[in-house]
Design brief:
- This protein has 336 residues and is α/β, with parallel strands linked by helices.
- Helices cover 37% and strands 25% of the residues.
- It has nine helices and 14 strands.
- Strands 2, 3, 4, 5, 6, 7, 13 and 14 form an eight-stranded mixed sheet that branches. The chain has a four-stranded mixed sheet with strand order 1-12-9-8.
- Helix 6 links the parallel strand 6 and strand 7.
- Helix 6 crosses helix 9.
- The N and C termini lie far apart (42 Å).
- The chain binds N,N,N-trimethyl-histidine.
- N,N,N-trimethyl-histidine binds next to strand 12.
Length: 336
């Protein structure tokens, strides 16, 4: 048996403990918070997939359209006459990546694709899909939390690396954390390697705040279910006594920090019990009506914020692609 075969069980134990630790940290903080990685259990990942298909959630749709229209140019600029290997941070099931990989195998007969994600099941699905549909692509997956730990980037001889960090995933991180993530990635790259980054843009004349709010509070209530699932997850995994229906999903625009915030607002005076667990003793949590648990930040970029982020992490913009209304942007940047 290879050491790799034992990873899943070990990872599950670590996740269970990490959930207990994060719930304790967040629910005893003032104000109360829970980290967005808690959204993505099996049900939450499914709800997120549904979000990406909602009419209000334009992010996925625009980014996919930009890839469809410009994948070949993106790859040509990244490659500049050299063969490429693609690395992806937070690959998930790599649905949109297929478009880029399909373009890549038209530029070169064989492509090494290196997805990195914390979810082993997502990585297995990604590898299955890609290897079935794109015979020219070899997949080397890595189970890692790119925000916390080191990951490795393989470089076949004389290849350039194109790192993908798409889907506005970077939006979940405050500016300093985002700079750390890109800086950490940059440390794995060489001059001339590139980063393809997908970011959601700040409100403008062409992008009312209401457009943003609707994307995070859709009419069908899928985002509300996604947000409340975090409480269901804690009930399932920690045996806590949240009544998710007595918390209201709330999306807020925080203009001074240029971010959408998601909160869960208590609708009643209520007490929630979290039993003792591997992270510490039991908790009795008191909620007044209107108290919230802050579950997510989704940063929206101005041109200045983007330029600053690239500069501090030692990347230089090569080209930017946007939809005609300037709602979403894909940036190709060179490691300098
Ligand atoms: C996966 C972080 C890009 O912030 O838009 C979608 C998550 N939250 N709807 C985002 C999310 C609510 C999403 N990211």
């Amino acid at each position: 048996m290879t050491p790799f075969a034992e990873a899943p069980e070990a990872l599950e134990v670590t996740t269970a403990h990490a959930v207990a630790v994060e719930a304790r940290r967040g629910l005893t903080s003032v104000p109360r918070t829970l980290s967005p990685w808690l959204f993505y259990d099996a049900l939450g990942s499914h709800l997120f997939e549904q979000i990406t298909a909602l009419p209000e959630y334009y992010l996925t749709r625009i980014e996919r359209d930009l890839f469809r229209a410009h994948a070949s140019e993106m790859l040509r600029l990244a490659a500049r006459e050299m063969p490429l290997t693609l690395v992806e941070l937070g690959a998930g099931t790599a649905t949109k990546t297929g478009i880029l990989l399909e373009a890549a195998v038209q530029h070169q007969p064989e492509v090494l694709y290196q997805p990195i994600d914390v979810s082993e099941t997502a990585l297995i699905e990604a590898a299955d899909n890609i290897e079935r549909h794109l015979p020219g692509v070899a997949v080397h997956s890595q189970i890692a939390d790119y925000t916390a730990s080191a990951f490795t980037v393989e470089r076949p001889r004389d290849h350039r690396v194109l790192a993908l960090y798409i889907g506005s995933s970077i939006g979940n991180f405050a500016p300093e954390e985002a700079a750390k993530i890109l800086g950490n990635l940059r440390a794995q790259l060489q001059f001339g390697d590139t980063l393809l980054l997908g970011i959601d843009l700040a409100p403008s004349r062409q992008k009312p705040v209401d457009t943003l709010l609707a994307a995070y509070d859709d009419a069908a209530g899928v985002t509300a279910a996604f947000n409340r699932n975090i409480l269901d997850r804690l009930n399932r995994e920690l045996r806590s006594s949240f009544r998710p229906e007595s918390f209201r999903h709330q999306a807020r625009w925080n203009a001074s920090d240029s971010r959408i915030e998601m909160h869960l607002e208590s609708l009643a005076e209520q007490t929630v019990h979290v039993p003792a667990n591997s992270a510490g003793p039991g908790l009795m949590l008191n909620f007044h009506p209107g108290d919230t648990i802050h579950t997510e930040n989704s940063y929206k970029f101005t041109e200045g914020a983007l330029a600053h982020l690239l500069h501090v992490s030692h990347f230089a913009e090569m080209k930017q692609w946007r939809d005609e209304r300037d709602w979403f942007s894909v940036i190709l940047a060179e490691a300098i």
